[in-house]
Fold these 3 entries.
Entry 1:
Amino acid sequence: MLTGRLCGRLMSDSDELLMRLAQQGRTDAFEELVCRYRRPLLRVAVSKLGDAVAAEDLVQETLLAAYAARATFNPQFAFRTWLWTIALRLCQRQWKRNASPKAAGGMIAPSAADATPVFADTGLDQLLRSERSDLLHQALAALPEVQADAIRLRFFGGLPYEDIAAAMQSSVSGAKQRVRLGLERLAVQLRHWAGTES
């Protein structure tokens, strides 16, 4: 579907300009947007859903929805906020459809979504990283959904607080508070599980 084979050709153009070009029928402009956003979208989706295949499907659905709704995009607003809002809503719908994320085992590290092999790792390094990732995903699943999603958008998606606020329909201070409270709860939960509570 959306492959990104033209990645980089329109790299200097803003997201909004690329979307205007896509509205005019320039598929290469939308391909550039796919190149820019696919990996961060995938990291957040994997973190939320805990399943790489479901996450890939959700990212494709997000990009298809954005392309299908391109005529409704208003270039006065940030494209990335619009796209992340679509992704977050689809993620929440999928997560609720599945009742809950996989809370025990089977979690996939966000780095797996990047598909960048690390050849210097030993099997033990990979196992330890996988166990830490599983623990992190379990702790995220135990948080209130708005806090977990804010953390995912901030750290897995790399969004600034302004974009998190817009995507989650909150104030910037509200987005910061969700991330802060979520990180505090996450730290308490991880210390509890590690048996190092003070």
Entry 2:
Amino acid sequence: MISPWAHYGAWQPLSIEQAAALFAMLDAPWWIAGGCAIDLFVGRQTRDHGDTDVLLLRRDQLAAQRALAGWDLHAADPPGLLRPWREDEWLSPSIHDIWCRPTPTSPWALQLMLIENDGDRWLFRRDPSIGGPLSQLTRRSPAGIPYLAPEVQLLYKGRTPRPKDEADFAVALPLLEPASSAWLAQALAIHVPDSPWLARLR
């Protein structure tokens, strides 16, 4: 099936290190996310990545916009519509992703992803009964790069796993700590009770 986003142009994703450098001075929490987060957890690149994702709290979206001043930024308005993200525009909860490129003629380089929070608790947007303390989200690479905890990233991948999501689950599963496996199993039992991943986690 052709993605509804395919006609918006090619991607040439930043490396993890390049993405981290962009946000190094941001006065707000951020995390490398997606398949790159799984790579950081495993300690090596496990597959090719079509994009590079950075996760932020929705409350910090304008700080991220300022960190990318001069870039060409577009909000992904479902279904399948990209539109310019205007300066100082507050994106509503219906918008979760922002595509970013250095100039309007450059390939897309980075995707920002927004997550909800309630005080010091993060919320899973597909089911707000699932969440946890903000501290749960953060792991750090040996170089100090923050990345999304693998159990949380795999929850986002677990609803309708694509081949790349299955690959990420397979490579991360043997390295998950017991508490992380238990948390993911509990969250999937709520969100995707028929997930085939549950038997492998248990």
Entry 3:
Amino acid sequence: MCQLEDVARAWEGLQACDAARLLATANIPWWVAGGLALDLFRGTSPREHADLDVGVLRCDALAAVEAISTWQIFEAKKGELARLSPGRAPRRDVHCLWCRPAGTARWAIELMMEEGDHDVWIYRRDERIQRPLSSVVQQTADALPYLSPEIQLLYKSKAPRNRDEVDFSVTWPLLPADARSWLHDAISLTAPRHRWLAFLK
């Protein structure tokens, strides 16, 4: 087991299109997440991204791991990394996996595990927030799936860092009215005094 702060800077993220190649054999729903998902929604990138976040349903996590079974895969939890044994599904209390090709020192993909099933997505921080899975993922013109921007901003709203504030400021004005309303209601439910609410009214 190793400490996250010792390795957190050792990233060499792949391109979003690389995820499609790597997960092609998994036959599961997946999507680009994180700040890069917002870039795909806007079609512009206001900042660089060190890593590539890829979302999958927890029920599909083992299939995703098997698609990159030759890689080194670690569970990330509470500031520590623990090697995931081959053929094992991640623990229920682990929400992300750090992944890198075997024999390399730099991480390439962070697999983010979402709750729900193939019909309904559930916000893992508050189960009152749910949506049909079909509305959770959007696609670029070349069919690259990415997490809907209002959901990605909801995740970023918990404890916004400087880069999250940048992502919010350049994304929220572009949200369709229904997406902006949904984000307002979701943040109102989870953090009723959040400063982003004033922009989303």
